[in-house]
Amino acid sequence: MNEHPLPVPPDGLALTVVVPCLNEADNIPDTYREIADALGDQADLEILFVDDGSTDETLARIRVIAESDDRVSFLSFSRNFGVEAAFSAGYRYARNPWVLHLDADLQFPPAEAKLLIERAADGYDAVFGIRVDRKDPWPRRTASIVHDWLARRLLGIEIPPRATTFRLVRTEIARRIVDLRLGTPYFLATLPRLTRAWTTVPTAHRPRAHGSSKVTVRGLARHSLDLFFGFSSRPISAAVWAGLIGLPVALLAGFTGSTALFGLALAAALFGLALVARTLLHISRGQARPPLFLVREANVPVDSMDLLAGRIS
């Protein structure tokens, strides 16, 4: 946690609540009601749903709500682009000076946002929620602990400890991060590179009421590798040392006939090469790439570069 916020007053409490959704039809009505009940007293509240290419009734239910409440906006992608794309679109098109990221699974009660808002008033640019008594299966809780330790302790990456996607951020800073168009987009690791005025707040957590989690083992692994290789130079340094030490020792062992030593040294060298290859893969993602997302339907103005075929259906 950063204990020294910049002495800058907040821009006000005008909020855009960004709600990424993928096949969350059963949760949409409750998500809307809880946000409206908990945050309806905030100035110029906007609830911005971002449909990440859902194949169920998610978009249809958002449309119905938007027709009856002009505080509700939505963007719907032409296909599934992923969670980073979904919240990035929300940050880009938020109309208010602060964005509150709230997932549609409602595991973070919207009423807990008041804790983040109160902390932001101290002059912070970003406030991250920390789950108290986390209501997820133990494998996910354990994986998060290991992931946090590897990132912060072993690899020296500056990320808010135990921070989550439940966060309140100045919109102009969130947009700046989106516009960086990083090959390895990882919001939690990018924000500390732009500002030191961030902090964390303990918040309640609850089980998912409807639907199933969209988080997969493969997705978590890819997300972790994006962080480890995209924001730390230590893996490539380890690869270099493994190669520098392993190859000469392997050659020496080959001359002396030490099979075991040769095998260990060769394994170290191959490990180093694998790390180099993985790092190069992540570097390549920083080059020119397809659009982060494309919007097929929306009830807000959308830049032509983010539209599918330059039009909204």
Automatic annotation (TrEMBL):
The chain crosses the membrane at residues 236-255, 261-281. Residues 16-176 form the Glycosyltransferase 2-like domain. Its EC number is 2.4.-.-. Signal peptide: none annotated. Keywords: Cell membrane, Glycosyltransferase, Lipopolysaccharide biosynthesis, Membrane, Transferase, Transmembrane, Transmembrane helix. One of its GO terms (molecular function) is glycosyltransferase activity. Pfam families: Glycos_transf_2. PANTHER family: UNDECAPRENYL-PHOSPHATE 4-DEOXY-4-FORMAMIDO-L-ARABINOSE TRANSFERASE, UNDECAPRENYL-PHOSPHATE 4-DEOXY-4-FORMAMIDO-L-ARABINOSE TRANSFERASE-RELATED. Belongs to the glycosyltransferase 2 family. This is Glycosyltransferase family 2 protein. It comes from Nonomuraea spiralis.
